[in-house]
Amino acid sequence: MGKVSHADYDEQVKLASLFLKGKDQQVITALVDKMEQAAENQAYEHAARFRDQIMALRKVAEQQEVSNNKGDMDVIGVHYASGIACFHLLFIREGKIFGSRSYYPSVPAQTDMDEVLRSFILQFYLNVDIQRTIPKEVVISHNFEELPELEVAVSTALDKKFSIKTNVRADRASFLRLAVTNATNAVMTRLSHKNTVEQRFVLLEEILELSAPILRMECFDISHTMGESTVASCVVFNREGPHKAEYRRYNIDGITPGDDYAAMKQAVTRRFDKIEAGGKIPDILFIDGGLGQLRIAQKIVDEKFVHLDKAPQLIGVAKGEGRKPGLETLIFGDTETSFSLEGDSPALHLIQHIRDESHRFAIAGHRNRRQKTRNTSTLESIAGIGPKRRKALLQHLGGLQEVKGASVAELVKVPGISIEMAQTIHDALRG
Length: 431
Prior knowledge:
The mean pLDDT is 85. The protein folds into 4 domains: 6-64, no CATH class; 73-191, 2-Layer Sandwich (Nucleotidyltransferase, domain 5), CATH 3.30.420; 194-370, Nucleotidyltransferase, domain 5 (2-Layer Sandwich); 381-429, 5' to 3' exonuclease, C-terminal subdomain (DNA polymerase, domain 1, Orthogonal Bundle). It has helices spanning 6-20, 24-40, 44-64, 113-125, 147-158, 170-192, 194-208, 260-271, 291-304, 346-380, 387-397, 400-405, 408-412, 419-429; strands spanning 73-81, 84-93, 96-103, 137-140, 163-165, 217-225, 228-238, 241-242, 248-251, 284-288, 313-318, 329-332, 338-339. It starts with 5 loop residues before the first helix and ends with a helix. It is α/β, with parallel strands linked by helices. Strands 6, 7, 8, 9, 10, 11, 12 and 13 form an 8-stranded mixed sheet that branches. The protein has a 5-stranded mixed sheet with strand order 3-2-1-4-5. This is Excinuclease ABC subunit C.
């Protein structure tokens, strides 16, 4: 685009190549020279830009280092959802992440993930083309039976030491968390892929024998802990997958703690309280729950849509035996007839996707509300403690429990807290 010279561009490519080859110190040294030269020429903006680059590169290099281990290892993160599995591999060489790659093995219906992972490890590490790069240690996120036998089989076939570890700590645990996160993100990306979602929508339309295409689906779920901080979620899918801009959460109040029926009634009522003919009406409304919750939601919809030409088709998604994916029972809200789909049905995977997304969104909202309540309610009741002082107390001492256990002398050290205020806080929190 002409915003940089060819010489500068070639220099950037050279430095990027060196850094990706692990020669980060060589890159940083080159940038330090450039920064000092720019400072001598009084080009301070350029010098500041080089300084920021150096700081960023050092941070990345520090994150890549394995503090106490300079050896080689492969780290495998596993994630499975809605018919898609991902094994994400991190290749650690000489204490750094040398590279990574995602694999998407096919998972037939009713197949145990243990069997899929076992087959993958055998095929991947017994491939003659990659034997020369196989490390002595592999860390995986998914434990399963016959792991020792698998370890011995690979070790014998390769005629070299080969160990598989699952329960790891420190640096290995950090790499494992990264691998699992990458695998999870990869699965979510595939699930959201337009072609995959479109195919699943078409199959769901065929199964439900709908005369018009599904343009909008919504799903409700309820989350709480022993009735505390109840939150309902409403997630929205269109033909391209999750439409997060229109997700909604509802803080549920004024009900008997733990009453999921009342919580569902309040959430659905608030969602369709002021619905109009031109409003955003879902073609299908999924309810994550059994017949009881479905009946509550169907009654509300019947009342709210009695004067409108269009109403959503309600479908309950009841968990199967042992809450295993693929065994869900689907229930039509208007007729209360139930049916099931094959575990490998793409239409069922679409339903599982919106159900799981609703569940995730509800749990996140519930945890945030619960944490906010536990962190602030006790301090808010103390006279003279406003948002600024409350924030200072929590940040300075590290949390509400630490504030409760602090002495008057420790409380006084918090900015903005006088000796009188410290005594008031101490007495209030100690009853």
